[in-house]
């Protein structure tokens, strides 16, 4: 009688300890932990600087979870999704409005900090020559000039302020901060007239002074086409009067050259 041989099931070999796999696992876990900490730190920094965006992201995550649960249950998903989407859109719009208002407030504060410091008429006598040039540049900026630049100093070749007028003309300004008893003479005009057009390519040459001009200086300006702005005209400009590029050119207002000293 033949007895059938019973098959003996082989016992599963126990898992062997793999040092390499364990090291890799712990290494990946450490990297994941570091990345998680870095992400949390960045999220914390963003939450401090932009709390509105954190609210938007939180609402988005909550909405995604709700939509996923609704989709699984298939009960009221069709009606819940539009309501949730509308709520998310409204919350996002509100958050963006708040963010835009914050940016607008920042722009206003920045603009306040960047406001020009155009001097008042009574302050001209208190300025030194460098401050006087900066004040004239501020007036140019205030009245719409672009690319305003103070270039006065050694080697300026007669130009203290360069600008582009609102009508596109290149304006070259020389500033004279003199005492009340010292008028701008013809030599000052001649030096300026020799460079303003040929060297600086001025479309409009302007000499702004804190005092008046002598008659010979006014006559030279008349013949060369230089606009002169004396202390009185400067005070009017500071108070909101016409800028030099808005004034009639020499010989276009009906006055004779001897009257140019009162411009």
UniProtKB/TrEMBL annotation:
InterPro entries: Restrct_endonuc-II-like, Restrct_endonuc_IV_Mrr, tRNA_endonuc-like_dom_sf, Type_IV_Methyl-Rstrct_Enzyme. Pfam families: Mrr_cat. Residues 242-263 are annotated as: Disordered. The chain crosses the membrane at residues 21-44, 50-67. Keywords: Endonuclease, Hydrolase, Membrane, Nuclease, Transmembrane, Transmembrane helix. GO terms for molecular function: DNA binding; restriction endodeoxyribonuclease activity. PANTHER family: MRR RESTRICTION SYSTEM PROTEIN (PTHR30015), SLL1429 PROTEIN (PTHR30015:SF6). This is Restriction endonuclease.
């Amino acid at each position: 009688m033949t007895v059938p041989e019973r098959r003996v099931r082989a016992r599963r070999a126990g898992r062997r300890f793999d040092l390499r796999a364990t090291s890799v696992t712990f290494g990946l876990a450490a990297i994941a932990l570091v990345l998680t900490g870095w992400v949390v730190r960045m999220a914390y920094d963003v939450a401090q600087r932009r709390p509105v965006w954190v609210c938007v992201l939180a609402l988005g995550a909550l909405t995604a979870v709700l939509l996923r649960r609704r989709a699984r249950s298939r009960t009221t998903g069709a009606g819940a999704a539009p309501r949730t989407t509308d709520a998310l859109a409204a919350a996002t719009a509100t958050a963006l409005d708040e963010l835009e208002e914050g940016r607008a407030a920042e722009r206003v504060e920045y603009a306040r900090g960047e406001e020009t410091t155009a001097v008042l008429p009574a302050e001209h006598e208190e300025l030194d020559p460098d401050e006087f040039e900066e004040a004239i540049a501020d007036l140019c900026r205030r009245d719409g000039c672009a690319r305003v630049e103070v270039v006065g100093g050694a080697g300026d070749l007669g130009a203290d302020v360069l600008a582009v007028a609102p009508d596109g003309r290149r304006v070259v300004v020389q500033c004279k901060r003199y005492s009340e008893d010292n008028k701008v003479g013809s030599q000052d005009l001649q030096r300026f007239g020799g460079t303003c057009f040929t060297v600086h390519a001025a479309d409009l040459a302007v000499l702004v002074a804190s005092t008046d001009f002598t008659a010979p200086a006014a006559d030279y300006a008349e013949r060369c086409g230089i606009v002169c702005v004396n202390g009185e005209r400067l005070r009017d400009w500071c108070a909101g009067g016409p800028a030099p590029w808005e004034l009639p050119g020499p010989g276009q207002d009906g006055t004779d050259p001897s009257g140019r000293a009162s411009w």
